[in-house]
């Protein structure tokens, strides 16, 4: 395939720009397994001439054809060319430019494993372009290096001139830094085992090398994943590396902010630094290269020079000539599937490929703009790499590219791609370097007071030296003048005495007179001159003396100041010592604290273990206690359950009794012809049968009220009046003698006469002798008293007294019941002894929801009379104090002698 020439060459011819020089370097093919060189038959590249090569494709499977393409370059370096020869061809001209104050950039571009790093760095015994460049630069300018630290980078592509004091301080600072970091030692240790091959070439530039002072500065950065990292930054050893920012100076030239720029004085020093940076550079093992660079590295060497006839004190930035060479080892483009990269390597590879793609695009667009006279925007800013070298595309300096090629067959497509790019780049023109624009107004450097003082002293000394020189010059001038004066006096012409005897003596005498006269005049003139000069010399001497005096006094002042400064320095040194001592003390204290911390930590650990064991014990105790509690609770629960069951049984029994009673009452209430028998309520109080003397009455509160029961105990004592007291009643009939247990302060109410009542069988029945009514509990209640015909009027104990009542002898009608709130039915019967038993059955009248009326029976009071064999005192006791109070207030029961009749009262 024959490629076409583009018209960019025309531009070169007309002087529109300088072409990018592209060199192709072929790597010797190697056996992949044992790194042995193989014969050239496996190579897909054939070198056609010193500028042209032919690329062959592998055999096409379909048609068996082999494709062929040709590529032109500035020069082709075959695989057998040595590193030294390659250096001379590729880098030496750029170093020559450097010394002449011109800038340049040299890229190595190629597929991974094609020999870029080998070309740039090379092994120690066969160094590449960068170590050789250092060698050559120091071989050339080494003898003319300026005073170290006289220049200091302003970190914006320029340099500041430092005073003596600043130099001293800088030196001290650097020495201290070196001592602290131990860099010296580390640099010496690097690669010290293998001897390095030196390049002895030196460049000769007769115009400059003897009349200039030179300074060499180096920076080394890598662009990794589109971030810039400083490889000289010692901080990256201790902490995570910080990326650096790209800025532009006031001339629009990019620079890396805060990058470390190191002044180097020897090639060894530079190479030690280089090795240190290389160790920090990111490399990784891939399928195609055991030490594949994962970043673009940029080593920049700056040469600063100025004419030595400019005195250092009047040296300014404008007097400096700064030139730079950038040696760029680009990371290799790689196909992920071929390099078999995974994980982080894939990300790196894509970043590398992306930045190389931007570089390609920049060159392509530049070429297009030049070929078609368009002005498409060049995408410099899309990657850090192109942003950094933007000014070079705009004409800052020369651009060279070394296209490294590994001519193995299986990489055919990638090689073709790279070769195409190289050829394309070769056609790009960059504008010629323009003279730098006038510098901006100088910014006075900020100096310390001490530095300013020292600079003043410098200036003064300089002035003194100038004055002395001037004096010497004047003296020399005077001497010359005197000398010339003496020279002017011509010697006497030889006196020929013989002439006096001759004829022409007069003439001779006249001549002699004339000669003498002239000599006298001349002497006179010279005397005048000498006097003048003497006068001048005298004045000058006076001036000198006065100058000397002033110099002496200045000197004294300076000496004093010097002494002062020396004192200050001593004082500072003492302070430094003290500070160092205190620092040591602090270190000791810190160590002590650290030790104590350790002890405390151990103690804390022990305590923690103790706490843990205590906690586990407590947990165990708690579990034991909980188990015991559970057992106990179960026991208590069982006990209460049994209790409750017993109570329930009791309750059921009581309920049953209550139901029996209610049934009886209901049947009584239902019947209009109430007979005495029907109202007989079985009294099943055992005590009333077994011990008739003591009747125990249980008073039940209404069971309907929440089914709760309260028991009030009332004792009634029945006694015979003939046995017990002096009562006048002599008959044998029993007498009711009710005694209530009074409260101590309750007034005693005397008994009244008993009332005799005849019952149906002819017995005299003794009713209660006195009507004692229990007061109705509520004045608002209206009672319906149903007292059937034939009922004996008892008017006796505990008979309720109703304030509002309606009496009826017949079964009441509904209308009558509706008007009342309470209902009481009086029922009488005779017991076995023929005594009247009176029951008061009481109930609440309640309106029903259907408009009817219900009577709920809830209380039965029974009055009975018994005849006990012995008279008993009747007592009534109230167990509940509250109840007692009520009873005491409502009733006044007194014991009395009377018939042996004892009313018995029940309440349900
Ligand atoms: N001209 C050469 N002569 C001898 N050996 C070479 C040459 N060029 C490269 N090599 C060898 O090839 C191998 C790969 O070279 P190198 O590391 O320089 O490749 P690279 O292009 O920098 O790769 P990457 O882009 O992955 O960093 C190295 O072992 C190197 O020694």
UniProtKB/TrEMBL annotation:
Residues 721-732 have a biased composition (Low complexity). GO terms for cellular component: kinesin complex; microtubule; nucleus. Keywords: ATP-binding, Coiled coil, Cytoplasm, Cytoskeleton, Microtubule, Motor protein, Nucleotide-binding. Its main location: cytoplasm. Residues 19-428 form the Kinesin motor domain. Residues 555-664 form a coiled coil. Residues 886-897 have a biased composition (Polar residues). It is found in: Cytoplasm, Cytoskeleton. The keyword Nucleotide-binding applies. The keyword Phosphoprotein does not apply. InterPro entries: Kif23_Arf-bd, Kif23_Arf-bd_sf, Kinesin-like_fam, Kinesin_motor_CS, Kinesin_motor_dom, Kinesin_motor_dom_sf, P-loop_NTPase. ATP binds at residues 110-117. Residues 720-757, 882-908 are annotated as: Disordered. SUPFAM superfamilies: P-loop containing nucleoside triphosphate hydrolases. GO terms for molecular function: ATP binding; ATP hydrolysis activity; microtubule binding; microtubule motor activity. GO terms for biological process: microtubule-based movement. Belongs to the TRAFAC class myosin-kinesin ATPase superfamily. Kinesin family. This is Kinesin-like protein. The lineage of its organism: Eukaryota, Metazoa, Spiralia, Gnathifera, Rotifera.
């Amino acid at each position: 395939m024959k490629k076409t020439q583009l018209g960019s060459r025309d531009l070169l011819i007309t002087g529109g720009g300088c072409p990018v020089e592209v060199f192709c370097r072929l790597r010797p093919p190697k056996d992949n397994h044992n790194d042995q060189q193989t014969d050239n038959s496996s190579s897909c590249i054939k070198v056609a001439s010193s500028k042209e090569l032919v690329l062959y494709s592998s055999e096409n499977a379909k048609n068996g054809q082999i494709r062929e393409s040709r590529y032109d370059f500035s020069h082709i370096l075959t695989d057998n060319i040595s590193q030294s020869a390659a250096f001379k061809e590729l880098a030496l001209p750029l170093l020559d430019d450097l010394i002449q104050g011109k800038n340049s950039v040299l890229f190595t571009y190629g597929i991974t494993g094609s020999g870029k790093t080998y070309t740039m760095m090379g092994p120690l015994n066969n160094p590449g372009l960068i170590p050789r460049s250092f060698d050559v630069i120091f071989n050339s300018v080494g003898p003319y290096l300026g005073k170290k630290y006289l220049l200091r980078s302003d970190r914006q592509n320029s340099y500041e001139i430092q005073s003596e004091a600043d130099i001293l301080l800088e030196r001290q600072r650097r020495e201290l830094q070196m001592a602290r970091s131990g860099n010296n030692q580390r640099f010496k240790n690097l690669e010290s085992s293998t001897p390095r091959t030196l390049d002895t070439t030196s460049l000769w530039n007769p115009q400059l090398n003897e009349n200039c002072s030179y300074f060499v500065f180096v920076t080394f950065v890598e662009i990794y994943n589109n971030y810039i990292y400083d490889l000289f930054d010692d901080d990256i050893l201790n902490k995570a590396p910080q990326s650096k920012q790209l800025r532009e100076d006031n001339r629009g030239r990019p620079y890396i902010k805060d990058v470390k720029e190191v002044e180097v004085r020897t090639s060894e020093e530079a190479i030690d630094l280089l090795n240190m940076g290389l160790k920090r550079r990111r490399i990784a093992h891939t399928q195609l290269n055991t030490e594949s660079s994962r970043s673009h590295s940029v080593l920049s060497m700056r040469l600063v020079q100025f004419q030595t006839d400019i005195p250092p004190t009047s040296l300014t930035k404008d007097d400096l000539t700064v030139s730079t060479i950038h040696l760029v080892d680009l990371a290799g483009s790689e196909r992920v599937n071929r390099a078999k990269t995974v994980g982080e390597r894939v990300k790196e590879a894509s970043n590398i490929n992306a930045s190389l793609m931007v570089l390609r695009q920049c060159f392509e667009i530049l070429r297009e703009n030049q070929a078609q006279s368009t002005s498409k925007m060049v995408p410099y800013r899309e990657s850090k790499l192109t942003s950094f070298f933007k000014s070079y595309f705009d004409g800052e300096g020369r651009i060279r590219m070394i296209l490294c090629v590994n001519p193995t067959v299986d990489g055919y497509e990638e090689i073709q791609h790279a070769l195409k790019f190289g050829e394309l780049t070769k056609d790009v023109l960059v504008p010629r370097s323009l003279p730098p624009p006038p510098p901006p107004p100088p910014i006075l450097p900020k100096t310390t007071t001490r530095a300013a003082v020292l600079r003043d002293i410098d200036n003064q000394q300089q002035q003194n030296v100038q004055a002395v020189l001037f004096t010497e010059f004047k003296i020399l001038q005077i001497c010359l003048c005197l000398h010339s004066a003496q020279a002017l006096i011509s010697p006497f012409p030889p006196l020929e005495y013989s002439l006096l005897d001759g004829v022409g003596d007069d003439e001779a005498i006249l001549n002699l007179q004339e000669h003498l006269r002239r000599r006298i005049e001349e002497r006179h003139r010279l005397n005048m001159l000498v006097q003048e000069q003497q006068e001048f010399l005298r004045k000058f001497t006076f001036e000198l003396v006065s100058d000397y005096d002033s110099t002496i006094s200045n000197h004294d002042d300076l000496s004093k100041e010097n002494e002062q400064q020396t004192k200050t320095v001593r004082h500072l040194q003492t302070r430094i010592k003290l500070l160092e001592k205190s620092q040591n003390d602090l270190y000791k204290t810190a160590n002590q604290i650290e030790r104590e911390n350790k002890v405390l930590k151990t103690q804390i650990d022990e305590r923690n273990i103790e706490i843990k064991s205590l906690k586990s014990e407590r947990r165990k105790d708690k579990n034991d206690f909980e188990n015991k509690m559970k057992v106990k609770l179960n026991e208590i629960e069982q006990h209460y359950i049994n209790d409750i069951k017993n109570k329930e049984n009791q309750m059921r029994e009581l309920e049953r009794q209550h139901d029996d009673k209610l049934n009886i009452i209901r049947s009584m209430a239902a019947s209009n012809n109430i007979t005495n028998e029907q109202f007989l309520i079985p009294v099943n109080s055992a005590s009333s049968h077994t011990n008739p003397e003591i009747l125990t009455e249980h008073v039940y509160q209404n069971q309907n009220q929440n089914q709760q029961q309260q028991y009030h105990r009332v004792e009634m004592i029945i006694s015979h009046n003939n046995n017990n007291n002096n009562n006048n009643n002599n008959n044998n009939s029993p007498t009711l003698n009710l005694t209530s247990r009074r409260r101590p302060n309750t007034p005693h109410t005397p008994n009244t006469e008993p009332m005799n009542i005849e019952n149906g069988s002819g017995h005299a029945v003794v009713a209660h002798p006195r009507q004692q009514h229990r007061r109705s509990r509520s004045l608002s209640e209206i009672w319906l008293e149903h007292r059937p015909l034939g009922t004996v009027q008892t008017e006796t104990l505990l008979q309720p007294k109703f304030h509002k009542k309606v009496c009826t002898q017949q079964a009441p009608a509904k209308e009558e019941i509706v008007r009342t709130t309470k209902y009481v039915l009086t029922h009488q019967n005779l017991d076995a002894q023929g005594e009247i038993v009176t029951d008061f059955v009481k109930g609440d009248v309640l309106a029903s929801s259907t408009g009817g009326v219900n009577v709920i029976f809830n209380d039965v009071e029974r009055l009975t009379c018994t005849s006990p064999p012995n008279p008993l005192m009747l007592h009534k006791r109230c167990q509940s104090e509250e109840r007692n109070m009520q009873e005491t207030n409502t009733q006044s029961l007194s014991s009395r002698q009377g018939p042996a009749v004892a009313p018995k009262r029940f309440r349900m």
